[in-house]
C-alpha cells in the first residue's frame, strides 16, 4: 500500500508541476515497468506467458487502469478521484466475487463500509464543488480495470513473471489508447525520471509484490485494504512535506484502519 501511495504522489507531482503530460507519464511508466520486470525475470531464468485468457485480462485491465487514472486527473480533483477510484474497485471486486460464488461475509462488508466511510470523511468534496463527468467516467473505468487486475492476480502462480507479462501486454494497448485520446505532449528530463521511478519501482516491483500477497488474501480483504492508500498518501504529505495534520484526516485514518482490521480478522469463539 505504501508503494501504491508513492505511485500516486509521483504521478501528481510530475503532472502538476508541468514536467510531463499525463499520457506521456503513463507510457513511460508502463515501459519502465515492463523493462525492469522482464530483466529481473530473465536474470532469474524464468519464463513468461503472453498468450492466455488470464494474461489478456490482466494486461488489458492494467492498461485500462493506467490510461483512466492518468487522464482523469486532468479534470478531476485528487480527493474526488481517489474516492471514485477505490469505491469502484471495492464494488467491482465484491460484485465479481459474489457472482462467482464467494460473496463477502457480513463482517467483511461491515469493515469495508467503515473503512470507506472514513475515506469519504477525509475526501468528500466541499459544498458546491462540481465533479467533471468525463473525469469521473475515466476514473470509474480505472477502478474497474484495477479491480479486475487484482482479481486476476489471486490466481497467479508466479508473481514476478505474471506481472512482467502483464506490463508487456499492457504496453502496446496503453500506447495505442494514449495516441488516440491525448493530443497534448509535454516532456522534460524531470518528468521522464519521475515516470521511470514510478514505473520501475512503485508500479513494477510494487505490483509484483501485490501479486505475491494476493493469493493469501480473501478478495473482500484485498479490496478493503486498498482504501488505506489515499490515507497513506495524505499522511506522507504531512510527515515529509510539512503539511498540517487535520482532525478530519486523523479521524478518517482511524476509521479506515479500524475497518481494515474488522474485515481482515476473524472473531474469536
Notable features of this structure?
76% helix, single chain, mainly alpha, transmembrane helix, EamA_dom, EmrE-like, 11 helices, 269 residues, globular
Describe this structure in words.
The chain is mainly alpha-helical and 269 residues long. The chain has one domain. Helix content is 76%, strand content 0%. The longest helix has 25 residues, at 189-213. The two termini are 31 Å apart.
Estimate what percentage of residues fall within beta strands.
under 5%
Radius of gyration: 18 Å
Q: Roughly what is the average pLDDT, rounded to an integer?
A: 87
Tally of DSSP helical segments: 11
Topology:
Elements: H1 2-16, H2 22-43, H3 53-72, H4 78-99, H5 106-123, H6 133-153, H7 159-181, H8 189-213, H9 219-225, H10 228-240, H11 247-264
Amino acid at each position: 500500500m505504501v508503494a501504491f501511495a508513492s505511485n500516486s504522489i509521483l504521478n501528481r507531482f510530475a503532472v502538476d508541476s508541468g514536467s510531463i503530460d499525463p499520457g506521456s507519464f503513463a507510457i513511460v511508466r508502463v515501459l519502465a515497468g515492463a523493462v525492469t520486470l522482464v530483466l529481473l525475470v530473465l536474470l532469474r531464468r524464468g519464463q513468461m506467458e503472453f498468450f492466455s485468457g488470464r494474461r489478456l485480462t490482466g494486461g488489458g485491465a492494467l492498461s485500462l487502469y493506467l490510461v483512466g487514472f492518468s487522464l482523469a486527473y486532468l479534470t478531476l480533483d485528487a480527493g474526488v478521484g481517489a474516492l471514485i477510484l477505490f469505491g469502484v474497485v471495492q464494488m467491482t471486486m465484491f460484485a465479481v466475487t459474489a457472482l462467482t460464488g464467494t460473496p463477502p461475509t457480513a463482517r467483511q462488508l461491515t469493515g469495508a463500509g467503515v473503512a470507506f466511510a472514513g475515506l469519504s470523511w477525509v475526501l468528500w468534496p466541499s459544498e458546491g464543488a462540481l465533479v467533471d463527468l468525463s473525469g469521473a467516467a475515466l476514473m470509474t473505468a480505472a477502478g474497474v480495470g484495477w479491480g479486475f487486475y487484482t482479481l486476476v492476480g489471486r490466481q497467479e502462480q508466479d508473481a514476478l513473471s505474471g506481472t512482467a507479462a502483464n506490463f508487456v501486454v499492457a504496453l502496446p494497448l496503453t500506447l495505442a489508447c494514449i495516441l488516440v485520446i491525448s493530443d497534448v505532449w509535454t516532456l522534460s528530463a524531470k518528468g521522464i525520471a519521475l515516470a521511470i521511478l514510478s514505473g520501475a519501482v512503485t508500479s513494477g516491483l510494487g505490483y509484483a509484490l501485490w501479486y505475491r500477497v494476493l493469493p493469501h488474501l480473501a478478495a473482500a480483504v484485498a479490496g478493503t485494504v486498498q482504501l488505506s492508500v489515499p490515507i497513506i498518501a495524505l499522511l506522507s504529505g504531512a510527515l515529509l512535506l510539512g503539511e498540517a495534520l487535520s482532525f478530519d484526516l486523523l479521524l478518517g485514518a482511524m476509521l479506515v484502519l479500524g475497518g481494515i482490521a474488522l474485515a481482515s480478522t476473524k472473531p474469536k469463539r
